């Protein structure tokens, strides 16, 4: 009976490592990390950024699986939410940039002058949606 549990644990861990590796490779392959490093002029820290992304995924999985509580987590939660939102937003923008949605969209609708306002509108809409979600949950 215990050999079956060991085999299941091994398969679960292997599948998790494979899925996480694929996700992290996708993030790095999109160029999110290198774009951040290029825009902040910190190209020498790219390996550190990639290690931090992997470590964040590993620690997040460990906290989720083992239900580890973080002391004073209520104070850390808004900061985590803000940083997570920035990361997801940048990831979505990088994905959209890879498939060239924005250049085609801007050219077809002839809205070159309105780009800053569109970006601001998207950011404010995302923030308002997150705020409404947060208020209704409490």
TrEMBL record:
Source organism, top-level taxon: Bacteria
Transmembrane segments: 6-33, 45-66, 72-102, 114-134
Any single Pfam family the record assigns to this protein: SpoVAB
Keywords: Membrane, Transmembrane, Transmembrane helix
Coiled coil residues, start to end: none
InterPro entries noted in UniProt: SpoVAB
Protein name in the entry: Stage V sporulation protein AB
């Amino acid at each position: 009976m215990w050999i079956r549990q060991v085999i299941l644990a091994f398969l679960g861990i292997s599948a998790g490592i494979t899925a996480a590796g694929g996700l992290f490779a996708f993030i790095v392959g999109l160029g999110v990390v290198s774009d951040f490093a290029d825009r902040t002029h910190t190209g020498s820290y790219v390996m550190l950024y990639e290690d931090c992304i992997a470590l964040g995924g590993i620690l997040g999985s460990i906290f989720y699986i083992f239900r580890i509580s973080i002391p004073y987590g209520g104070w850390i939660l808004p900061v985590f939410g803000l940083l997570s939102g920035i990361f997801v937003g940048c990831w979505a923008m990088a994905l959209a940039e890879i498939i060239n949605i924005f250049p085609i969209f801007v050219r077809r609708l002839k809205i070159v002058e309105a780009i800053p306002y569109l970006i601001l509108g998207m950011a404010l809409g995302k923030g308002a949606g997150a705020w409404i979600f947060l208020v209704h949950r409490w």
